[in-house]
Design brief:
The structure holds 2 protein chains of 2 kinds. By secondary structure, chain A is α/β, with parallel strands linked by helices. In chain A, 44% of the residues lie in helices and 20% in strands. Chain A has 5 helices and 5 strands, in the order E-H-E-H-E-H-E-H-E-H. Chain A has a 5-stranded parallel β-sheet with strand order 2-1-3-4-5, sandwiched between helices. Helices cover 49% and strands 21% of the residues of chain B. In chain B, helix 10 runs antiparallel to helix 11 and helix 13 packs antiparallel against helix 15. Classes of the chains: A alpha/beta, B alpha/beta. The interface between A and B is medium-sized, with 17 and 24 residues.
């Protein structure tokens, strides 16, 4: 059965790219242009994987991640976070954002991403 | 020891005088007749002479006359005998100092000598005094002349221009500094020009007013004000000006004005701005990394889609992909052009235009974007603003940048209940300057952000901002000779104000 992948990014061009790559690899792409839209679609569609841009305005990317991991319904969905800064800073602040539960994202990619890298990580995360 | 000459034909008299006078401390020389006496006088030059009146050969009167011929300052005391009253009086008329009668009483002699000495002293002192005085006058005159020359030099060689006028405004002093600044030679100006022709119209009046202003000058030191003067070739020269009226006995006798050549300073200021700008560009690479990475990602994504589309012969996908590629190439172009624009010295292409028309165009362009986000653009244009000389494309760019920022500020504000408004206003100020104002009631900026917005490539928009917008705006405004400033409160909004001169500035 085809797996559903939700991609959340405020750049429409990037979403177009993700959609293309996902379709090409037999996934069903679902896109959201904001954290708000992302949360709605996550609850509606219950995707098998979420690709989440951390660098969205007003820290909405990180906040969405936090919410995902807090929500019992959504917690189990694996998340690949996309950052632009090649440092571990984001992880640390993410980890610190979750006091008791040190929940690290299942996958992590640094922009700019090639199609191959994306598929490699998706496959790794989904096993 | 004072020298004393005694002339007497009687040897006894001579001896007695010699002895007693020596005892009194005089150096005594004697002669037995007038002739010898004169010879001795010429040789020894005694200041005091005692001579008998009645002598064979040259008598005392003759001796007296001769001595007075040789040295009128000599004290000559006549020794008379009984019945020589006439001779005594005659001798006095011939300027003998005194006479004593025979037989000579010591007392009388002493007194006569004392008086003679006193007179000698007085005369000497007077002479010294006079010489002294003459010397002093000579010195004072010399000093005065030196002073005069020195100050003349000071004025001449002062780097600042110094122009002094008489009561009517005719130029009487025009130093080398002034020659340098104005381009006229002294000869072309002194006595030939009214100082008013050196000032551009309007400014002459301002300056005249500042001369007569009742404002107390701080501690008597005139203040510098920046203004323009007219050079020989009609060019406007930026100067620092300071002037004052000159008074004597409460009446105005003329004026003096000082001019600081600001061309060099202005040139250096321009250089500084230019080098700061280039330094800012130097910092660009790191600053723009974010922005460029995003564009590259977009480009690569687009290319990927185009390739897939070509492989599958899918026109729709091709269009989608190609759109993305084009859009991102457009972004790269804009960025490069902005950078190039920013680094180049540009002279505004001045045209006479209406600021209101430009502002209206910009509002029109941004109306739909604003409406999409629930923001109202309010136009507040000054109907009396008239036409202004400026570069319409440049100003259009500035306003577009400010309005776009204002809209972004409203969008990123988190208040749910605010009615967002971006107000664009134009105004003609009382000093002739033209003002553009763009204000919003969006998220505002704190002091930290405000400090950075006009320096280097700073953006609050994350990967979407280049940080170039305001810098380019500021550059365009500066090239017009204007200024841009901002007022802001976090949570309340910001107001950006551009002030432009209504006439192109600088030569």
């Amino acid at each position: 059965m085809q797996k559903k992948v939700l991609a959340v990014d405020d750049e429409p061009d990037v979403l177009a790219f993700y959609s293309e790559v996902l379709e090409d690899n037999n996934f069903i792409p679902i896109t959201a242009e904001s954290a708000l839209e992302g949360m709605i679609k996550a609850r509606e569609e219950k995707p098998d994987l979420i690709i989440l841009d951390i660098m969205m305005p007003k820290k909405s990317g990180m906040l969405m991640y936090k919410e995902l991991k807090k929500d019992p319904d959504l917690r189990s969905i694996p998340v690949i976070i996309i950052t632009a800064i090649p440092k571990q800073v984001d992880f640390i602040s993410l980890l610190r954002a979750h006091t008791a539960r040190r929940i690290a994202p299942e996958g992590h990619l640094i922009k700019p991403i090639t199609a191959d890298d994306l598929i490699k990580v998706i496959n790794k995360v989904l096993g | 020891m004072l020298k004393l000459l005694v002339i007497d034909d009687e040897e006894d008299t001579r001896e007695v005088m010699r002895l007693s006078l020596r005892a009194e401390g005089y150096e005594v020389i004697t002669a037995e007749d007038g002739q010898r006496g004169i010879e001795l006088f010429k040789r020894e030059k005694p200041p005091i002479v005692l001579t008998d009146i009645k002598m064979p050969g040259m008598d005392g009167i003759e001796v007296l006359k001769r001595i007075k011929e040789i040295n009128p300052g000599t004290e000559v005391i006549i020794i008379t005998g009984h019945g020589d009253m006439d001779l005594a009086i005659q001798s006095l008329q011939l300027e003998a100092s005194d006479f004593i009668t025979k037989p000579i009483i010591d007392e009388a002699l002493s007194v006569a000598l004392r008086r003679a000495k006193e007179r000698l002293d007085m005369r000497r002192m007077l002479k010294e005094y006079t010489i002294n005085l003459e010397n002093k006058v000579k010195e004072a005159t010399e000093e005065l002349r030196e002073r005069y020359e020195f100050e003349g030099n000071l004025i001449q060689h002062s780097i600042d221009g110094i122009i002094a006028t008489d009561k009517q405004g005719n130029i009487i002093t025009f130093n080398q500094g002034a020659e340098r600044i104005f381009g006229y030679s002294k000869d072309e100006v002194v006595g030939k020009m009214d100082v008013r022709s050196l000032y551009p119209p309007g400014i002459a009046e301002e300056i005249r007013q500042s001369f007569y202003s009742k404002e107390p000058k701080r501690q008597g030191i005139p203040q510098w004000q920046e203004t323009f003067v007219l050079g020989k070739s009609g060019d406007k020269i930026p100067v620092g000006f300071s002037g004052t009226l000159l008074y004597r006995n409460g009446e105005v006798i003329g004026s003096v004005a000082f001019f600081h050549d600001l061309r060099e300073i202005k040139r250096l200021q321009q250089e500084l701005i230019k080098s700061e700008r280039l330094a800012a560009i130097g910092q660009t690479v790191a600053g723009l990394a974010h922005y460029t990475k995003n564009i590259l990602f977009g480009l690569e994504g687009g290319v990927y889609i185009v390739n897939k589309a070509l492989k599958k012969d899918d026109m729709r996908k091709l269009r989608t992909g190609w759109d993305i590629v084009q859009r991102n190439i457009g972004k790269v172009s804009s960025l490069v052009l902005d950078l190039l624009d920013y680094s180049k010295e540009r002279k505004p292409e001045y045209q006479s235009c209406s600021p209101n028309v430009i502002a209206d165009e910009v509002c029109g362009l941004m109306d739909s974007k604003a409406k999409e986000s629930g923001i109202e653009i309010v136009r507040d244009f000054d109907p009396t603003i008239g036409e202004v000389s400026l570069d319409p494309k440049g100003i259009h760019r500035c306003l577009l940048n400010l309005v776009s920022n204002a809209i972004d500020a409203c969008i990123s504000d988190e208040e749910e209940k605010k009615k967002y408004q971006v107000r664009v206003s134009t105004r003609r100020e009382s000093d002739g300057m033209v003002t553009f104002e763009v204000s919003d009631n969006g998220c505002g900026m704190d002091k930290e952000v405000r400090k950075q917005i006009f320096t280097s490539f700073f953006s609050t928009k994350g990967p979407k901002g280049t940080g170039l917008g305001l810098l380019v705006t500021q550059k365009i405004v500066q090239e017009h000779g204007g200024s841009i400033s901002v007022d802001s409160e976090p949570g309340e909004g910001s107001t950006f104000t551009i002030r432009l001169p209504s006439e192109p500035q600088g030569g």
